[in-house]
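Hi support team,

I've been running sequence recovery on a batch of backbones for a student project. Most finish fine, but this one hangs at about 90% for roughly twenty minutes before it completes. I'm not sure whether the input is malformed or the queue is just slow. I've pasted the structure tokens below so you can try to reproduce it. Let me know if you need the job ID as well.

Thanks,
M.K.
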């Protein structure tokens, strides 16, 4: 009993001493703080509010902070009308200078890109039409009401599809395929690209990458490089490399392949009943290689592929543009329509309806030759679709960004 009492007394003593020590230390600390703040000896102790001098340093941005994108900022500053104007590539008449009517139309709708065809080139004029073509492109650039430069295009495939008269003949795709000489093909299109750039043309709507087992049975005939997809791939990629090495944007055509039909889409809408797997094994091979090689433009075929999309032809098909070309194949460049004047398109859609569907499917640039009534319908339809929200600003900006990036690369545009 006594032992238990002693233990309890000892514990109480220890706890009491602990409490006393705590109170003593706390009292001492408060005394020091109070004395320091109230007026310490100026020699021995600085005021308690003083802090060591710290040199200000800029705070480093996190490693994953986004870098400001001047192009994105530029696009945000564009008007909707300016943006829509970038989505089209229109043709005009005349082979010397732009007409006052078309110049006014260009400025009214902020037309951002121009398409030249046979009617714009005088092959029989001195020097094969090159000087006249240079004058025409200079006139078009002078009519441009925007600081954003024009992409000006032409079809210069060689052979029967050769708009200018070249000092050295530009041989056909079929001739290049028979030779199967990639370096010769590349050299030819270096020469073509340099010639086009010399007269103000920055886009060549070539090469034709369509393959067919029997080119002579196809309306394309000599425009087909080869019935052998391997040869078409080698030569097609070489043509693209030649053009783009001299700053001329190449546009591979006609995606996803025009070779499986003998019907000319300039006359009516062809139907190709192949499955997607069948296309992957043959028709798509040259296009896949072109995408991997960095081609910056691909033109769509005005063809109906019911086993891929049972509702729409290729240029209006999100399954073909959005899922196949963009998604599966990873193409990030400009998707261009074929000419909107073609019956292969107009037999199934009106121009205004097709324009909106093409952009919604993932297309970027609508090609339409010299037919101002159709061109105006296209522009009005696009304006209405954006105003109503059918085409969102986000979707609009995606295409504008692709087109302006091409202008930065090929025209030196600096946003």
């Amino acid at each position: 009993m006594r032992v238990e009492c002693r233990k309890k007394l000892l514990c109480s003593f220890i706890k009491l001493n602990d409490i006393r020590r705590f109170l003593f230390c706390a009292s001492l600390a408060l005394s020091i703080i109070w004395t320091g703040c109230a007026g310490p000896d100026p020699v021995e102790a600085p005021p308690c509010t003083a802090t060591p001098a710290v040199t200000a340093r800029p705070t480093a941005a996190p490693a994953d902070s986004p870098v400001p994108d001047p192009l994105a900022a530029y696009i945000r500053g564009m008007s909707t009308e300016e943006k829509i104007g970038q989505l089209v590539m229109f043709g005009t008449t005349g082979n010397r200078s732009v007409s006052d009517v078309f110049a006014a139309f260009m400025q009214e709708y902020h037309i951002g890109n121009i398409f030249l065809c046979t009617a714009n080139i005088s092959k029989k004029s001195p020097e094969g039409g090159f000087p006249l073509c240079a004058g025409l492109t200079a006139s078009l650039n002078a009519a441009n009401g925007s600081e954003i430069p024009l992409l000006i295009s032409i079809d210069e495939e060689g052979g029967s599809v050769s708009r200018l008269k070249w000092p050295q003949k530009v041989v056909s795709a079929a001739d290049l395929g028979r030779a199967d000489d990639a370096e010769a093909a590349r050299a030819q299109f270096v020469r073509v690209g340099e010639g086009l750039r010399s007269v103000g043309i920055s886009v060549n709507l070539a090469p034709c990458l369509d393959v067919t087992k029997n080119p002579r049975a196809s309306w394309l005939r000599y425009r087909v490089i080869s019935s052998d997809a391997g040869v078409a791939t080698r030569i097609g990629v070489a043509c693209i490399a030649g053009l783009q090495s001299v700053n001329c944007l190449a546009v591979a055509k006609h995606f996803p392949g025009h070779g499986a039909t003998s019907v000319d889409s300039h006359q009516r809408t062809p139907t190709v009943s192949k499955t997607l797997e069948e296309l992957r094994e043959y028709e798509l091979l040259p296009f896949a290689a072109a995408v991997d090689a960095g081609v910056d433009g691909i033109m769509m075929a005005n063809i109906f592929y019911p086993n891929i999309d049972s509702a729409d032809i290729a240029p209006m098909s999100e399954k073909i543009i959005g899922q196949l070309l963009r998604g599966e194949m990873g193409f990030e460049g400009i998707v261009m329509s074929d000419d909107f004047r073609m019956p292969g398109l107009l037999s199934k859609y009106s121009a205004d309806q097709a324009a909106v569907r093409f952009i919604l499917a993932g297309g970027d640039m609508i090609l339409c030759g010299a037919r101002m009534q159709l061109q105006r319908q296209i522009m009005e339809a696009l304006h209405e679709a954006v105003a109503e929200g059918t085409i969102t600003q986000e979707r609009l900006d995606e295409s504008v960004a692709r087109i302006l990036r091409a202008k930065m690369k090929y025209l030196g545009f600096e946003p």
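--
Follow-up from support: It reproduced on our side and the slowdown came from queue contention, not your input. The first helix runs from residue 2 to 38. No action needed from you.
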